[in-house]
Amino acid sequence: MLGPSSINDLELAKQFLEANPDIETIEVLLPDINGVLRGKWLPRDNLLKAFKGGLKLPVTTLNFDIWGRDAPGVAFDDGDADGICIPVASSLSRVPWTDRPMGQMFVHMADLDEQPFIGDPRVVLDSIVEKFKALGLKPVVAIELEFYLLEEKRDNTGRPVHAGCDANADYPIGGQPYSLDLMQEYQEAFHEMREACETLGVPVDTLVKEFAPAQYEINLHHEDDPCSAADHAMMLKRVIKSVARRHDLNASFMAKPFGDMAGNGMHVHFSILDEAGHNIFNNETEEGSEALLHAIAGVQSTMVETMAIYAPNFNSYRRFQPGSYAPMAPTWGYENRTVALRIPSDDFAATRIEHRVSGADANPYLVLASILAGAYEGLTKKLQPTAAMEGDAYSQAQSSLPVYWPDSLNAFERSKFVRTHLGEVFQRSYLAAKRQELDEFRHTVTRMEYDAYLLAF
């Protein structure tokens, strides 16, 4: 359970300073509700002070909207008070891509009594993990992230430009998925990303070329610490974006950068272990156990209410189109990529659920918290799922997930499940920030509207 830094944490900080005498500055990384890293640069001499509770930031740093603005009704409720930033000692490391030696570490927010602040996404996830621990259970998770490599400059309409030879045509047809030749094109950047992950202890698995031009996917290993897995997903994004810039490229995890091409997803694989280390989804059959069915049902039944987490931005909802591999209903099935919850074919011991709803723009802490809270609900209430889908789920299941942002925010606001498991404080602050963003988009007239209407009427 999260709490103040311990003596062991302080010793780790001392060892880090001794092992890295050339580092003068440490970047403090606080993931906000959007999954954007906020923080500050910390002089070397202040690192140990931070491990003794001496590092502060306003609590509202967590609740900025995507443009970094305070959300209405949140900033001044407590006088815009400071919170204490508690270092995550295991994340303390060198930054591999900077010209001058630097360190970095994640922090989570606590109140002035050093108790975890319940509006911090990392704390929200930790609270769900603790619920499983009380049942003698341990979730195991793995995250897959899709992204685009783009040229630094946009075209004359403001549209991003694909990087690489597979996008040189004016109208590229297909993205050559799983092409080895195309991955060779940026091999130096990809090797640098892998080496940076090794330095940072980020457990990367495979790299593949994805469906759209200049689109790729990097997978992370399964971990039995969901908070660590979310940390690693955040760090993987940072590695990819930072190394891409060193190679005069931009990397984007935007959910749908191109309306006519594949979107970027964040797929989450998860299983649950009991105290003996046995996967409770495994009963030595292809169908899996009753616990598997209960977990599927719980995630199914809460998917509408948590859609605002899985699709957190205005652009996120452009992913959800028939036949797009982004699900339109809370369906499930065995070895079926047209459903929301896929049960991959594997060894019985590796029986797991793949959650295919989230965009790569979502906050990994909140995605994991929402998925695991749904599974917890299903397991504790012994819920039963709908029938497993066979074949094309798009043609069989009526679209029932919110595909418009206001609808998902309304469902999130009404949700007793969200209030119970993710917390009322978080629910209120998240809604305030997201509704402020929505209002901004509502007030902005787009170029397409001018082209359609300005001279027509």
From TrEMBL:
<dbReference type="InterPro" id="IPR008146">
    <property type="entry name" value="Gln_synth_cat_dom"/>
</dbReference>
<dbReference type="GO" id="GO:0016874">
    <property type="term" value="F:ligase activity"/>
</dbReference>
<dbReference type="Pfam" id="PF00120">
    <property type="entry name" value="Gln-synt_C"/>
</dbReference>
<dbReference type="InterPro" id="IPR036651">
    <property type="entry name" value="Gln_synt_N_sf"/>
</dbReference>
<keyword id="KW-0460">Magnesium</keyword>
<feature type="domain" description="GS catalytic">
    <location>
        <begin position="121"/>
        <end position="457"/>
    </location>
</feature>
<dbReference type="InterPro" id="IPR014746">
    <property type="entry name" value="Gln_synth/guanido_kin_cat_dom"/>
</dbReference>
<dbReference type="InterPro" id="IPR027303">
    <property type="entry name" value="Gln_synth_gly_rich_site"/>
</dbReference>
<keyword id="KW-0436">Ligase</keyword>
<protein>
    <submittedName>
        <fullName>Glutamine synthetase family protein</fullName>
        <ecNumber>6.3.1.-</ecNumber>
    </submittedName>
</protein>
<comment type="similarity">
    <text>Belongs to the glutamine synthetase family.</text>
</comment>
